[in-house]
Amino acid sequence: MSVETEDSNRSRHSIPGPYGQIILFGDSITEMAWNQEWQKDGFAFGAAMSAGTDQHVPLDKYVECLKAIAQQPAIMAHKPRLMFITPPPLDEYQQDDTEALKGFTQPRRNAKNTKRYADACKELGNTINIPVADIWGAMMRVAGWEDGQPLEGSRERPPNSKLDEMLSDGLHLNPAGYRVVFGEVMKTITEHYPDDAPDKLEMIFPYWMEAPK
Fold it and tell me: How far is CA 186 from the centre of its chain?
């Protein structure tokens, strides 16, 4: 978008208008992405909400709230391009070690319940036509999991070294995990919002080699 004006010599200049914005709205996993080596408007909730803690939100309430946020009139007034981002998998082995250091004797999260929240996020996205970056599925594919098998990261399977490489404490991601997130988010943008892919965006300012010296 540009605004055309005329100077005293009546020559026309292009003045940049408001820039497009990318707004990330989520939990600590979204927050910690900026501390790593690296999501259009993204919602990333569910990892903490699936826990048996004071952060817990029942699954039906999670879906209700996620839908309410996405369809909130003040948000819709901006005609945003929305994307849901599922919670990642949980590694119970890593988590239990971390929880023990915090003084908890019983696990507060489990891999099966985390999958339920990821599945609910995908189902809601399909229902209200919002693209979903399936981080849970992408990371589980890297870990070698196939549908129908016991979940990688659960106590029903041996520890998974590939999953371990993507998580820092069983819940939060490390740089390798965020690289998977980045790849899945970029794939979702390319498939659903192709004109927002990086190679399709116009430069706001001149490329440095073309800028006035």
Answer: 11
> Do the Cβ atoms of 118 and 77 come closer than 8 Å?
no
* Residue count (the chain): 213
Cα 110 to chain centroid, rounded = 20
Distances (CA, A) of 99 to 26, 105, 167: 23, 8, 14
Instruction: Collect all residues with Cβ–Cβ distance below 8 Å to 4 and sequence separation of at least 6.
Output: 12, 13, 14, 15
Q: How many CB atoms lie within 10 A of CB 186?
A: 14
CB 125 within 8 A of CB 64: no
Q: What would the pLDDT profile of 34-63 be if each residue is shown by its tens digit?
A: 444 333 334 444 444 444 455 678 899 889
* Cβ within 8 Å of residue 117, ≥6 positions away: 46, 47, 49, 50, 59, 62, 86, 87
Question: Tokens at residue 56, please?
Answer: 């817990």
Cβ-based neighbours of 144, under 8 Å, separated by 6 or more: 152, 160, 162
At 154-201, the pLDDT tens digits run: 999 999 999 999 998 888 898 899 999 999 999 999 999 999 888 888
Contacts for 160 with CB less than 8 Å, ≥ 6 apart: 91, 143, 144, 152, 153
Q: Are 135 and 180 in contact (CB under 8 A)?
A: yes
Given a cut of 50, whether residue 12 has pLDDT beyond it is no
pTM of the model: 0.76
Question: Which letter does DSSP use for residue 173 in this model?
Answer: B
